[in-house]
């Protein structure tokens, strides 16, 4: 058997699916935070979020929850203001 680098871990398909989903949700949350910290949500940013939510399979409910979180985050609001 050929040596594969990096080494493949002994993870089940279900474990891989869970890890992937967690990465997708964290990525979406990170983009929402960054866009909030940049300031106003432009049409281009809205379009980007629409495409990203499709690619990462983010539901409308999850999107709204992430937006609420970011809008109410004092640190992100302060960064956007300054």
Brief summary:
By secondary structure, this protein is mainly α.
Report on this structure:
By secondary structure, the protein is mostly helical. The protein has one domain: Methyltransferase, Methionine Synthase (B12-binding Domains), Chain A, domain 1 (Orthogonal Bundle). The protein is built from 4 helices and no strands. Helix 1 crosses helix 4. It is elongated, with a radius of gyration of 17 Å. The N and C termini lie far apart (57 Å). This is ENT domain-containing protein. It comes from Pan paniscus. It is found in: Nucleus.
List the SSEs and their pairings.
Blueprint: H1 13-38, H2 43-55, H3 60-71, H4 74-81
Helix pairs in contact: 1-2, 1-3, 1-4
Count helical runs.
4
Largest sheet: none
Q: How do the SSEs run, as a string of H and E? A: HHHH
First and last CA, distance = 57 Å
Strand residues, percent: under 5%
Helix content: over 70%
The pLDDT mean sits at 94
Domain tally: 1
CATH class annotation: Mainly Alpha
Oligomer: single chain
Give the overall form: elongated
The computed structural class is mainly alpha
Determine Rg (CA atoms, Å). Answer: 17 Å
Count all strands and give the number: 0
CATH superfamily: ENT domain
At CATH's second level, what is the architecture? Answer: Orthogonal Bundle
Low-confidence stretches: none
Pfam families: ENT (PF03735)
Subcellular location: Nucleus
Domain ENT: 16-82
Protein name: ENT domain-containing protein
Keywords:
EMSY, ENT_dom, ENT domain-containing protein, ENT_dom-like_sf, 82 residues, nucleus, mainly alpha, Methyltransferase, Methionine Synthase (B12-binding Domains), Chain A, domain 1
């Amino acid at each position: 058997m050929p040596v594969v680098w990096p080494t493949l871990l002994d993870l089940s398909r279900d474990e891989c699916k869970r890890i992937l989903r967690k990465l997708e949700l964290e990525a979406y949350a990170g983009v929402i935070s960054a866009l909030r910290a940049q300031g106003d949500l432009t049409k281009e940013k809205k379009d980007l979020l629409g495409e990203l939510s499709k690619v990462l399979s983010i539901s409308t409910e999850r999107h709204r929850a992430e937006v609420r979180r970011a809008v109410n985050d004092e640190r992100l609001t302060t960064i956007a203001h300054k």
